[in-house]
């Protein structure tokens, strides 16, 4: 199987002014594309793995040949993380989750406000490049977690349902070093109906 760069589910300008068109072009067309290209190049030497899904490769990364583990972690993680991230953003975002998803967030974190504060604090606490996530853990409980580089929560048995890219390539053109402004604007463009589906 050859992995493919998915098209954005909206125009490059759709998320402006929160994420600008040039950032979207570079982020999707260059960075994400490079992860896909390098993942395919690494897997090309292992035709025995051709039938495996990306989820499978990441979930069982420790079982892969040792030389393949770093390329799959970095580029397979990069491909999986970005593919989900694009879908989690929308120009038509409701400002907050509703229904069962909201109830689950309230039950787990106390309130949506507290969840936002904890997620934002986790995002600000990531040193260097990485991601902040809302995941379903192995007990199907909601948890905030962070990962370094392009590590995927799938590698540790978690299922990501919300993701924020904290690499500078995601925000530096517009926000420079002001990561907090980027994180705060993220709340205005979250595709909560998709998060509800994933949970
Ligand atoms: Fe990224």
Strands of the widest sheet, in order across it, are 2-1-3
Report the principal-axis shape. Answer: globular
| Radius of gyration, in angstroms, nearest whole number | 17 Å
Query: What small molecules does this complex bind?
Result: fe (ii) ion
> For this structure, what is the CATH homologous superfamily?
Iron/manganese superoxide dismutase, C-terminal domain
Distance between the termini: 28 Å
Largest sheet: 3 strands, antiparallel
List the helices and strands in order: HHHHHEEEHHH
Structural class: mainly alpha
Helix content: 40-55%
Q: Tell me the quaternary state.
A: single chain
**Beta fraction of the residues?**
5-15%
* CATH topology descriptor: minor pseudopilin epsh fold
Q: State the domain count.
A: 1
Q: What value does the average pLDDT take?
A: 97
Please, could you describe this protein's structure?
The protein has 199 residues and is mainly alpha-helical. It has one domain: Iron/manganese superoxide dismutase, C-terminal domain (minor pseudopilin epsh fold). It has eight helices and three strands, in the order αααααβββααα. The protein has a three-stranded antiparallel sheet with strand order 2-1-3, sandwiched between helices. A hairpin with a 5-residue loop joins β1 and β2. The structure holds fe (ii) ion (FE2). Fe (ii) ion binds at residues 27, 31, 82, 165, 167, 169-170. Destroys radicals which are normally produced within the cells and which are toxic to biological systems. It comes from Latilactobacillus fuchuensis. InterPro entries: Mn/Fe_SOD (IPR001189), Mn/Fe_SOD_BS (IPR019833), Mn/Fe_SOD_C (IPR019832), Mn/Fe_SOD_N (IPR019831), Mn/Fe_SOD_N_sf (IPR036324), SOD_C_sf (IPR036314). Keywords: Metal-binding, Oxidoreductase.
């Amino acid at each position: 199987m050859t992995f493919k760069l998915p098209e954005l589910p909206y125009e490059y300008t759709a998320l402006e002014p929160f994420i600008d068109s040039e950032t979207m072009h570079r982020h999707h067309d260059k960075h994400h594309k490079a992860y896909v290209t390098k993942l395919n190049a690494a897997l090309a030497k292992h035709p025995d793995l051709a039938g495996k899904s990306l989820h499978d490769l990441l979930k069982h990364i420790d079982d892969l040949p040792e030389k393949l583990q770093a390329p799959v972690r970095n580029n397979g993680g990069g491909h999986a993380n970005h593919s989900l991230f694009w879908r989690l953003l929308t120009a038509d975002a409701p400002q907050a989750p509703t229904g069962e998803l909201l109830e689950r967030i309230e039950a787990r974190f106390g309130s949506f406000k507290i969840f936002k504060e904890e997620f934002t604090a986790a995002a600000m606490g990531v040193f260097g490049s990485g991601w902040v996530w809302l995941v379903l853990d192995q007990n199907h409980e909601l948890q905030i977690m962070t990962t370094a580089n392009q590590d995927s929560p799938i590698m540790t048995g978690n299922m990501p349902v919300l993701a924020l890219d904290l690499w500078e390539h995601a925000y530096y053109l517009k926000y420079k070093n002001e990561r907090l402004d980027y994180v705060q604007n993220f709340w205005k463009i979250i595709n909560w109906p998709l998060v509800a589906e994933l949970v």
